[in-house]
Amino acid sequence: MVVGEVASPVDLMVIGGGPGGYAAALHAARLGRTVTLVERNAVGGACLNVGCIPSKTLIEVANAHALSQRVRSWGVDTSSRVDMAQVRSHLTEVVGDLTSGISTLLTAAGVHLITGHARFTRPGRVSVEHDETVEFYDPSDVIVASGSRPIELSNVPIDGDLVVGSAELLFAEVLPQQLVLVGGGYIGIELGCAFAKLGSEVTIVEAEHHVLPDFDARTTRLVERGLRRLGIGLCLGHRAVGTDEHGLVVQNVSNGESGERLTLPADRIAVVVGRRPDASSAAIDKSGATIEPSGHVQVDVTRRAADGVYAIGDLTAGPALAHKAIAEAEVAADTACGRRAAFNPTTIPMVVFGDPQVMAVGLTSEKAASAGLDPSVFRFPLGASGRARTMGDSEGTVTVVADAAGTVVGIHAVGSHVAELAGEAALAVEMAATVEDLAGTIHAHPTIGESIMEAALGLAGRPVHTR
């Protein structure tokens, strides 16, 4: 039923209830706006419901199951088994607790939540469809956070049975015996490590000749070594071209369409090649916004996409990360509320929760050199870290990169638990800390965090636990 074309006026509308959307709604409400949040599925978006939260929960489950093998040489003899139905229940409980918490925060802030699919019909007007009802609204301002959607492969369509997406794989009640992951980016690495530890025979297919194509060669070498240590097969330089009764058909990319083909046995294939901006779901182009060839919405530094319209998160250029969306949300809400604000970060941290973990903040030495910064670099080996040795996993490095003036422009790490270094690393780069600032800051011992200080001490020419 269409409720006429009569529109109800609203103050500030947020389209999309993911991390960027709910953060924008909460901040705008704090600033005194009357906020209406429209979400067509569940509050929390893909990240909380089917992405980063359940995937990291599954990784913890997998790590717990794999612990028995790791600690046997310590004199601890344990065993475990995996009940995937119970695992799924655990993931659902974690997600439910967090989504409930977000809903409570929105209610307490006075945010009006509407369940429905919001689309612009013209500048200044938004329709919201729910079941067979369509209502119209004329918001004073709109913040669009409709996110992204998984990239699909026409040659390997998702059927929900043999071929699935990451969400279906995460909540599977049966552990795949032979799992093939199409995509060697961070999603494929994280899921591959988790399912290998749970007991699946895992193969990762990547069209590039190394995994994690967005990271430097040194990092990818260490990651590939860790994957092989887990028994994960790597089919690099190949692309998925179809399926047959045995599994996934892949083709060598070196010779184009004439490249050699082979079949990778699989009882489950997961397509995890990445995500693309979902500008069409909100029809944001009808608001007057410009869609770039990449599919991203064009915005200025205030996140303004058109008069009274702001876009944040995966819709806009840059890494599709929840923490980027949350930071952009505050800028968009500030601007919509008449406050001066701009989104212009020096760095956005990148983390991969594989085995080993990867943390990247700022420039690598190669990129710093290309920028003419005359960089200096020091790599602190985690084999020299007391904390890493006590945890029984000391492979990896923590690297500090500085420019010619001694300003820290990048901090990168590969190893166990290094994801937890991202906060300090980002603060150091964002605040233009110097090598001496890091070297002179007392870090607790023994912690993985002090590896940043150790690398800075090495760069300053006075290393303590390494040469």
Task: Describe what you observe in this structure.
By secondary structure, the protein is α/β, with parallel strands linked by helices. The protein has three domains: 2-150 and 276-336, FAD/NAD(P)-binding domain (3-Layer(bba) Sandwich), CATH 3.50.50; 163-273, 3-Layer(bba) Sandwich (FAD/NAD(P)-binding domain), CATH 3.50.50.60; 350-459, FAD/NAD-linked reductase, C-terminal dimerisation domain (Enolase-like, domain 1). 31% of the residues lie in helices and 27% in strands. It has helices spanning 19-30, 45-50, 52-71, 84-108, 166-170, 186-198, 217-229, 322-336, 365-370, 386-390, 422-430, 435-439, 450-459; strands spanning 2-15, 35-39, 112-115, 117-122, 125-130, 133-144, 148-150, 163-164, 178-182, 201-206, 233-236, 238-243, 247-252, 261-265, 268-271, 275-277, 304-306, 309-311, 350-352, 357-362, 376-381, 397-402, 408-415. The strands form five sheets. Strands 1, 2, 3, 4, 5, 6, 17 and 18 form an eight-stranded mixed β-sheet that branches. Strands 8-15-9-10-11 form a five-stranded parallel β-sheet. A hairpin with a 2-residue loop joins β5 and β6 (133-144). The chain is globular and about 70 Å long. The model has no long low-confidence stretch (mean pLDDT 96).
